[in-house]
Every structure is written in structure tokens, then in C-alpha cells.
Structure prediction request, 189 residues.
Amino acid sequence: MALSPTARVRAAFAAAPRHRFLPADLVGHAQLDTPLPIGHGATNSQPSTVATMLELLDPQPGDLVLDVGAGSGWTTALLAHLVGDDGHVIGVELVPELVQTALPRLTRHSNATMQVASPEVLGLPERAPFDRILVSAMPDELPQSLVDQLADGGRMVIPVDGLMLVVDRCGGEVEVHRAPGRYRFVPLL
Prediction:
């Protein structure tokens, strides 16, 4: 019997616990359902928000996933668990110091990589198309350049101007749905 998206996300949380991706002085706060600062103006996102985003994204085994604003690498590791050994996750992060800190934390996940994002380019168009794109920073409007990186049948989850959007591409058509709630994230630069 296949696991529900919620059960799959719970299993990912158990396989990649948040405390492994926090600065040493915040490890004791890993169970708090709040964003935690990881330096350079970035945060390790609130666990309930991460769970909601992953359930909405619904990554499948074998998917190629882009994790935009990967920060501590936690969501990259969670996604790596969800896509399994046949899938691959690429995290991109603008702050080189965060990438340097995250890379050793990702060594348990052979199907995940992380790299410094180019400040002039949103996402990773040279590796597109992606089956799934998770964005953990907030733009004011939906970036077409990321929509263009979705594969046919692909899905993106992205906070835009306080709303959580689910973007699905089917052929030449793009459908955008709003998930319930309001959200706050660091700005997508």
C-alpha cells in the first residue's frame, strides 16, 4: 500500500531531522515550530510550513527536483528522501557560506547536491526541466523564469506576496492554485 503524502513527509522528517541542519547553538530549539536564524539573514523554515510545502509539492520517486533558497540544506535533504535513490535534488543558495556549511550535512544523501546560485539567474535553467521546484524565499510576483524551468507534468510550490502558490504545467498550459493561509519568507532576490 502506498503511503499518503503526509505519511511520506513524516518519514522524510524522521530520515533528515531538523537538528542536523542547525547551528550548534540552536540544536536545542529544533523541535520549535518557528523559523530559526542560520546567519546571513536566512532562516531554517518553520517545520509546519515545510511540511505543508512538501505535501503540496508531492515529489515522487525518481523526480528531478530544484530547491531554490536551500539555506541550511534541510529541505534539500527532505526532498532527497522523498525522491529516493532514483531521483535527484539540486539545492541552490545565494550565500556561499551557507552552501559551505550545508554541504557536509548533505553527505548522507548521495542523491542531493547543493551549489551557489548565480545572482543574475533565478533557478538553474541549464539543468531544466525539473519535475518539481520548491522555492523557500518570497518574490512579489510569480517569476516566469522559474515557471519556464518546469517539465511537462511538473509542479512548483512558491510563496508569492504572502500567498502559497501551487503551479502546475501540463503541455503548454500553466495552472496556478492558491493554498490556504498566509506566509512570510525571506525575500527572493
Remarks:
- The helical segments are 5-15, 47-57, 74-83, 96-105, 144-147.
- The chain has five helices and nine strands.
- The domain at 5-17+33-179 is CATH 3.40.50.150 (Rossmann fold).
